[in-house]
Every structure is written in C-alpha cells, then in structure tokens.
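To fix ideas, we reproduce below a protein record of this kind.
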Amino acid sequence: MSKRMSPCQQACPTKTNVAKYTRLILEGDLYEAWKVNRAANVLVSVCGRVCVHPCESSCKRGNIKSEDSAPVSLEPVAIRGLKRFITDYLPPDYQERFLEEILPIKKNNKRVAVVGSGPAGLAVANDLILSGCEVVIFESLPEPGGTLRFGIPSYRLPREVLEEEIGLLGKLGVKIITNTTVGKNISLDALERDFNAVFVGPGAQKPKALSIKGENLAGVIPGITFLQQVSLGEPVDVKGKVMAVIGGGFTAADVARTALRMGAKVIVLYRRGLEEMPMDAEERRALVEEGVKVHCLASPLEILSGRGKKGKGLRCIKNELTEPDASGRRKPVPIPGSEFELEADMVIPAIDQEPDTSLLQGVSEANPETLETPKKGIFAGGDFITGTSNVIEVIAHAHRASEAILKYLGEEMRNMEEDVPRRIAGSPWNSRDPETMYRQKTYGGWLKEGGNFKEVDKGLTRDIAIMEASRCLQCDYVLEIEKDCNYCGACVRNCPQNALEMTFLNKDPNRFKENRGGQSWFYSGHWHIEEDAQITRNPDLCIQCGVCVQSCPVQNMSFLSK
C-alpha cells in the first residue's frame, strides 16, 4: 500500500490532511475536521482567512480528462474556504471538548522561553506545551499576535478570531507576558539562565528602505508602521488626504484599503504590471472594486519636499517589462525620458520588511538543519530567520524549530493526528456528478458602502460548503490490487485517464516482438502474461473515479486511505 500524500497535502507547508478534513465535512463532523486541521496548524481560523493556499494550485482536478466533450470542472477545490467554513460552524463547546480530551498533559519539567507572539512563536508554544514543556512567551507589544494583530487589518482578519485561537493556547497553559522587549526590558542572558531552552521568533518588522532621496521627510511612513499605528489606535490623520502607496504585495494592499476606509484618496504605485503584483488576484480585484487607483509600470525616483520639510509628492519614471528575472516575473526597465510627478500629501513605502536584530545580536542566524543559533540552547525561526514569507510557511518553519528544541531537551513531539485507514469498494468521490460541479466560491470581498472595518469575506454557507467539498477527489485514497489478480486487463482498457498499465518486472525491450516500449504485451484483443506481470498506477493521472474497481470481474481492486 502506498503512503503517498495527496498533492494538496504535499503542497501545504504544514502537511495538513486536506482530503481527510474535507471528507469529515461531508460526514457532518466539523469538530473532528477542525482537529485534523489543528494537528498541523495552530491557527486554523486565521489560515482560513489569510493563507495563500498553495494547496489549491496543486489540486488534481486540473488533471481530469473529459469524455465525449462533457463539461468538466478543472478549477481547484476552494480548500481555504472549506477550512474557514469548519471554524465558522464549529459547535460552541469545541474548545471545552478539546481540552477535556487533551488535559491533563504529562509534564516533563522543562521550561522554554519564546520571544515573539506572532505565528512562529504561537506555533512553537503550542507544540511545546502539548509535548509537556512549560512555555512562557515574551511579547514587546501590548497584545499578542504580532503581524497577525498589528499588520493585517480587521476587515481581513477580525480581532476576535485571533483572540479565540490565542485564548485556547492560554487554556492549554501557555503564559504570555506583553509589553516586554527581550534585549531591553529583560536580557537574553536572563532567559538563558532561567529556562532550559529559548526560541527567538520576533518576525520581520523592520521596513526596508527605498534608498531614494526624500524618504526621511515628514509625511513618509513605512507601510508596516502605518498599519501598526492604526491597530494600536494611535492618531493617524489621513481623512481627505491623497496617499501614495509604493509596492505591490499584501502590505501595500492592506495599507491602501485601510487608508481608504479612513477617508483617504489612495494611489498605489507599482513597478511591474497588475498581473505581476505579489498580492493574490482577490486583493487586486478588491483594490479596483473599492476605488483605489493603481498606477502600474512606474517606479519612484524621489520623494518631493514641500514646506516644512514635508513630502508633497513623488517624481517617478515609467517602466517597460523585459525578460523574466530571478523572481520568474518580467523585469521592469526604466524608459529614458518618461519621468513624471504625482502629487500626494502622504507617501507610504510598503515594499518589504526585514528582521530587526539590534536587540538580539548573536542569535539572528541559525543552523539551517537544527535551527540552533551560535548560542547553545537558543533556537530561532520564522520570518526572523527566513525573511518575510507567509503565515503557513512560518508555522511550518516553527514546527521544525519545535522538533529541534525537543530533541535538544531529550523529549519527543506529541503527535496529535490519529491515522485510521479506511477501505472502500467504490470511488472515493463524494459527488454523484462531480464532473459538472463547478467551483462555487471566489474568495474576497470589498467595501460596499461607508467606511468601516467589518470583515468583507463572508465565507461559505453550509450548502455551498457541502457542494464544494463534494468536488474533492479524495486523493489520499490509493488503489490497492490483491495478489490473486488474473491480469485480464479490464481495468487498464477501461481507465479514462490512462493511469493504469500492464507491466513486466523484467523490462527487456526485446523480450516480445509486439510490445509497448518493453513494458506491456497486448495483441489480438487479449493480454498475454507470465508470472512476472503486474498492474502499475500513475498516481498523478489517477483521479479516483473507480472505473477500474467496477471493471474488475473478480472484485480484486479497492481503495484504501492512508
């Protein structure tokens, strides 16, 4: 039996078992579906909203071949939407049920300090507390959450959603100390002395400079700083002002849409084309739908100064796109003589962030394998080591750090997912007519009226979620063929995907006069075999349709989940 992961699970940095929780949705057990998610990902509700969902790009629905020109839905399953649906419709007592199952946790008398309460710190804290360690998180800001709280606007990630997930960590026993900066309010040496190990994961909060003239003028605020000020409730006067946002990623989109809700007129300046923007398609559409003017193929040359050393606009230059660069996107090249000016009351650079190592010198580098820093017993991970990435990649990196810390402490990671294989005699598909069932949900949403920070993406209804889950091909099931196969070839002939083949263990291309590349032997309408024949399956082509199972005259085939 193959233990091969489904393509979506393989693509997920945390290896979340997508097919299994999708199946549980169809069975109506949302609590168990949530547990499958949380076994791999401490921030299920958060990732149901802001994950970049690489799993969807790997969905095998795109491999389906149409027969007789029948309509076929090749669009991926809305996996992120299903993840959020689970958390939106969980039973009210789900945390109590979970705690009753988990607690008490057997303690190992090991204490670990965690620096930073962003996704990296929260994921490490969860892994270690469940594995028996005592965990204390030190957070420099007034509330825990890091970038999740202070860098992602509430219209994308409501604060109560984040607080509920962090609250569960508190119920598990994680202690969070806020308003405490390591390296300032408490020394790293003190943590080394008082704890058996330390994890450093404060993220990447330092804005990268534009390196152009005028970026130190008044009215020029880095994007991540602007978002943090708004989240902290600090006075930021943007109403009625023209704001120029420089960048094309999620931070630039978050700044632009936040400022719009606060009454600003917003222009986004990006050096490549609209389709090359690092933000996803939903964010690009939201910018346009909400009325943000996007000025593509333009780069800033200088921030112009007005009275009182205050920025008053931008001097820019137009670009043209040439051959792809290292990023895989077409490289922007300035067009000589195409300079122009943009008027703006505020300029917000939002190009990227990097780690601030000024207070944590000596631990900003880590062994790529063990994630241990040059200081023994101190480990580092997440954006602090990798640079800016995304939430799900940070959580995956944190899991690696947790394993390394536990190994250093002589302990083992607690496995939270139960593996219960299932065997079925038919297709794992859950829909009666999956080929004609098209993707039901496009993510995102935008401001319809008024200026408010209410969540714009309303999520999936129960009916739509069930329809969407029914489109899943259940790729965690593998085809199993019993030993008493008589090699009649019916399964091979009837496979609509050409995913099965009759092969010989002895692949001598000269063995038979008539052969298919030396790997099978079929002529005059019959298969001719010897004892070394076998049926092989290409998992990338197989779509779990079950035609082979139905075609087998001796009922020798079945599907088995891993």
Remarks:
- The first strand starts at residue 111 and ends at 115.
